[in-house]
User: Which sequence fits this backbone?
């Protein structure tokens, strides 16, 4: 069976005075209707992967590897073909909502636009769908928001308008980059429900990027843990939370408030100065001599893959 999304050996680097390799040979796949979460500390490369899939990286980016979406190589599509996919079959909720809404168009118009462009919906049909999408995201009198402008809303409100605009076409794959950031717990529940409903009703798949591991645990079927631009553990969510195997994954779970709030010592390395051997070794409580010299492979065993000599 073909995967909906198949990322193989993706590498992303940036040219410049000091060229950097940001993503090193990242591979993962997402099946139809499946949700995969990408987690890891700030700066480890989560948004870069999301933008690489949508081909939205800056011109100085060098991309290698393969990104198959429904069997089509995205890295080889023309800009025109990509534009047809974006927002329609493949959508993203951007990490910085405030820049993604157009300040001069009403929310009603911005939400209806993708329906009119991609689905050729008439005005009445588009309005009906816009009202439904707003209601699903917890707006109690949705009609009020048809003539509402982004500058009138709070950051949290605009975040929810943005989610509505990304989900209204029921894309086959939705990439949600920190969709719950800046929202209060009641709003997070609404966003969670909306993403869940999208998966159940429209059979959409989700690539979820989030620092909120509770949110991830409730929504994702599988988790990929990224450290310094590479995957260090990939596992089914239930298996992962029961027993994380990579020392970094163990550190991430240990730093949760319910697990005692124990921070991982040290800082993630700068991407232009990756340590030799295992990239996590300077912070690892279990480091051995070999970890300083050799770079571990991502090894699959039982229901997961782990990049650690302790696991090999
Ligand atoms: N144009 C660029 N040139 C060079 N480096 C870049 C460029 N854009 C991003 N980076 C680097 O790529 C790395 C990964 O960035 P990315 O935005 O993917 O992190 P992230 O995991 O999404 O972090 P956060 O959780 O804070 O959103 C960062 O270290 C960043 O400095
Ligand atoms: Mg990011």
Assistant:
């Amino acid at each position: 069976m073909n995967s909906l999304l198949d990322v193989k050996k993706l590498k992303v680097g940036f040219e410049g005075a000091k060229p950097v390799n940001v993503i090193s040979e990242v591979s993962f796949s997402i099946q139809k209707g499946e949700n995969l979460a990408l987690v890891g500390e700030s700066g480890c490369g989560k948004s870069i992967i999301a933008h690489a899939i949508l081909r939205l990286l800056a011109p100085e980016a060098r991309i290698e590897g393969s990104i198959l979406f429904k069997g089509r190589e995205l890295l080889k599509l023309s800009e025109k073909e990509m534009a047809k996919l974006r927002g329609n079959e493949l959508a993203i909720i951007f990490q910085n909502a405030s820049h993604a809404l157009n300040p001069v168009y009403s929310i009603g118009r911005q939400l209806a636009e993708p329906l009119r462009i991609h689905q050729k919906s008439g005005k009445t049909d588009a309005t009906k769908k816009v009202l439904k999408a707003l209601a699903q995201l917890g707006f109690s009198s949705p009609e009020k928001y048809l003539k509402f402008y982004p500058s009138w809303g709070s950051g949290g409100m605009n975040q929810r308008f943005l989610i509505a605009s990304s989900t209204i076409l029921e894309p086959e794959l939705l990439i949600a980059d920190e969709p719950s950031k800046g929202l209060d717990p009641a709003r997070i529940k609404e966003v969670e429900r909306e993403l869940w409903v999208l998966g159940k009703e429209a059979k959409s798949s989700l690539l979820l990027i989030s620092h909120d591991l509770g949110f991830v645990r409730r929504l994702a079927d599988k988790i990929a843990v990224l450290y310094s631009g590479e995957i260090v553990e990939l596992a089914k969510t239930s298996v992962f939370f029961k027993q994380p195997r990579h020392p970094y994954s163990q550190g991430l779970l240990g730093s949760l408030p319910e697990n005692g709030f124990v921070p991982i010592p040290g800082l993630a390395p700068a991407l232009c100065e990756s340590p030799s051997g295992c990239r996590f070794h300077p912070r690892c409580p279990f480091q051995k001599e070999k970890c300083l010299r050799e770079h571990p492979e991502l090894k699959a065993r039982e229901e997961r893959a782990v990049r650690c000599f302790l696991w090999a």
